[in-house]
What we know:
single chain, about 250 residues, alpha+beta, Endonuclease I-creI, four-stranded antiparallel sheet, 10 helices
Amino acid sequence: MYDMATRLHTLKLLDDGRSMSSVSKETGVSRASIRSWRVRVEPLPRQRQTTCPPLTDTAAYAYLLGLYLGDGHISQPASHRVPSLRITCDNKWPGLMNAAEEAMRRVFPFNQVCRARKVGCHDVKVYSKHLTCLFPQHGPGKKHERRIVLEDWQQAIVDAHPWEFIRGLIHSDGCRVTNWTVRNGKRYEYPRYFFTNKSDDIRKLCTDTLAKVGVQWTILARGSDPFNVSIARKASVALMDAHIGPKY
């Protein structure tokens, strides 16, 4: 059995005009498997519908998925024929807004990406009829009021690009702050990261991925709400700084 990341990469090579023999030689996937992927028309269990175009940039998708799970929303007003994905970005972080727009353009290279101005923020958005299969976590109600589980093909992408996924989560519902304390009359400052989300499922996706890349974390409850994932150990903060960094 081949994982979804291998399938996506293989189909992308075919879409680029490569021959089946050369793709088989490069990827190690048998010609029979490649042939079955190309002609199969029914949906595979827990995978995207085959009518959806293949993802050509899985790293950008991992980042966009993290953004969506935090500050993203899919909607389809009655006046529009196709749904739209909106990532709400605070005006204080123009770099984040640019990164969100770039990720959308890379995931949807043939769709128009735009920004909608709101009070104190912008919605970076794209319209696509494939949104609900690319983001199957979409559903009625708030995210923390329903189950959020990654499909097998999504988990394969997150496993291949864990830091991009974490970066999307931190850029949406996280931050890097500088804490301080006083010991023996001397002030000490130290950085730490937070990820705050009401959804138990989304927090677990975050902490599971952090653990896979070697980042130690704890749950910090403010009041009675254990909604905050805290990263404060020096080595783990250094890892986060190397791959994530503060929003800008």
